[in-house]
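User: Study the fold:
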Amino acid sequence: MSEAGYNQFCPVAKACELLEPRWTLLILCEMWSGSTRFNDIGRGVPGMCRHCCRED
């Protein structure tokens, strides 16, 4: 976990700060709420850099 955390007050974000060091759970949460496009997900998960979602 980074020292800055996700800087969100969402309960899922708080759990992710403790349990998951990556953005995966927050991206899934955003998708469950209806976001399907890359830019929509990026707006819903502030602080996530764009290259976090690229395919390696």
